[in-house]
Every structure is written in structure tokens, then in C-alpha cells.
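wait is this the right file?? whatever heres the structure
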């Protein structure tokens, strides 16, 4: 997964986009966690989306999602929160509530709220 640290943003974006279709083994998850901290918001967004949609529940993946729940990029932040809600992470409720208090709320947060409401 050396391409995950490539100096070209287009290469890193392609890696973040393609990895899930190749299978998410430990090395792929490690690469996605690395890419979820990328300086480019599109790379972070795709990597976070891929982590959130994966079935991975290992602590490193959950913590990577939690770290992105504070991302300044709205879509990345919402993908992370949805990923935490899918895993029934207890921190997800406060994150969803924080986003619901904003003037505009996206579909990913509404989806996360629905997942958490089924936990009650």
C-alpha cells in the first residue's frame, strides 16, 4: 500500500477510492486509516467513507472514524459519524445531536440518527 503515501493527490485519491473493491484486509484498512488523515479533503472523504462503510470494528478503525468526526470538511465529518453510528459506538449520539443542532442537516446525519434511534 505504498501508493497511499504517494506525493500526488490524484494517486492517493485513486487508492482511497479503489481499495474497497479490492477487499479490505488489514493492510488495506491501515492504508485507509492513513488516507483518512490526508491533507486533501477529497482523499480524507473517500477514505473515511470507505472505513465507515466497511464491516471493520477493530479499535484502530473506530478511533480513525472518531478522529474524523471533528473534520472541518462537512461530508468527511458526516461519513465518520455515520460510521460510528453503524458500529453503535456510544460517542455517536452526542455527535449526531451536535450536528442536528446546526441550521442545515445532511442526509448522512439523518441516517445516523435513525440507526441510533433503533438502539433505544
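ok assuming it is, sequence goes like this
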Amino acid at each position: 500500500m505504498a501508493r497511499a503515501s504517494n506525493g500526488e493527490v490524484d494517486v492517493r485519491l485513486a487508492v482511497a477510492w479503489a481499495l474497497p473493491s479490492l477487499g479490505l484486509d488489514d493492510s488495506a484498512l491501515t492504508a485507509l486509516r492513513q488516507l483518512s488523515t490526508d491533507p486533501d479533503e477529497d482523499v480524507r472523504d473517500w477514505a473515511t467513507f470507505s472505513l465507515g462503510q466497511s464491516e471493520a470494528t477493530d479499535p484502530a478503525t473506530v478511533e480513525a472514524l472518531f478522529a474524523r468526526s471533528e473534520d472541518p470538511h462537512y461530508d468527511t465529518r458526516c461519513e465518520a459519524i455515520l460510521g460510528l453510528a453503524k458500529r453503535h459506538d456510544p460517542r455517536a449520539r452526542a455527535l449526531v445531536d451536535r450536528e442536528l443542532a446546526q441550521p442545515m442537516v445532511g442526509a448522512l446525519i439523518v441516517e445516523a440518527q435513525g440507526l441510533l434511534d433503533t438502539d433505544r
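The CA atoms of residues 56 and 62 lie 8 Å apart. so i think its the right one actually
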